[in-house]
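Sanity check. The docking grid for zinc ion depends on where the pocket ends up, so I'm generating a full predicted complex first rather than guessing from homology. Inputs follow.
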Amino acid sequence: MKDLVLGIESSCDDTAAALVARGREVRSSIVHSQVAEHAVFGGVVPEVAGRSHLRAILPVVDDALAQAGADLDDLRGIAVTNRPGLIGSLLVGLSTAKALAFARGLPLVCVHHIEAHVYAATMEREDVDFPCLALVASGGHTALYRVRSCLDLELVATTLDDAAGEAFDKVGQLLGLGYPGGPAIARAALEGDRRAIAFPRYRSKDGAPGFSFSGLKTAVLYHLRGQDALAPTPPPEEIGDRPDVAASFQEAVVDTLVENTLRAARAEGLDTVLVAGGVACNQRLREAFAEHGARDGLRAIFPSPAYCTDNAVMIAGLGWHLLEAGRTADWNVDASPR
Ligand code: KG4
Ligand code: ZN
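Predicted complex below; grid placement will be based on this.
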């Protein structure tokens, strides 16, 4: 019985393909990042992303097959992200997957990008107890899910405005640290004092778990401009306390994520939290979950950093489970931004 799945991911600004056996055994993983193409604009430009995926997709699939020493004839099936994401970007991956699957008579499965991020946290270990809670914090999403199995997720809470990664990217821009802001802020924060500036932490009025980062972003802006909202943002070289701003901002995001996640875990009666998405790379977030979790008797599980940010291993991995469950897609299946 063939056990290899080809995964294809193109929902945002990474073109990725991977070969994974039986949902866990990684045979190859190729990620072509578009960061350099979007950096000049300070964020992802959908039209640029779509065109870049078109150029990269076939070479990336070829590289994934070559790295695994595999052929399309070795595949059990093809898994592709078809939702949510940038529609023009999703269509490149979906059309490629459909064409390859149709030409080779292979089954096709469509994967939800967020569910794949959650799956990434379970993929590298055998000891995850369901049900558990999942926090997905990426550039496009920040939400909590009750996870009954890797194929059964229920939304518990989400952000009222920005995603956590988006806040990192916007503040990175304000501080002149470039795009993406997350890794750059984490580096700058190493030199700063996380207690230097008391930035606000979001907490809902009724105590229910949830997230919001727009107030925090505005607080950073006022800190940089003084209290005059019309004043220009100072150029990066004139921000004397940049490491302190970075460290204090990062601490506010981390506190907001950890506090609201722990509150949801208590409310849902769950003692394991899967933490996934690009922001889960953040070292301070990992430390804080370890500290607070130990106090609350809660276990936090993170994927390896390479499987936190967008990749196709998580798509091929979850794709295997969808194939096993017989959840194959029709040829007329479409992509969806939501
Ligand atoms: O999951 P991902 O690769 O793409 C989306 O699905 O959005 O996440 C990218 C996001 C970016 O906003 C980036 O700034 C953030 O993850 N990120 C980080 C770190 N590494 C990446 N945020 C904080 N700390 C990091 N070390
Ligand atoms: Zn993602």
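Relevant for the grid: DSSP finds ten helices and ten strands in the chain.
Also worth noting: The radius of gyration is 20 Å.
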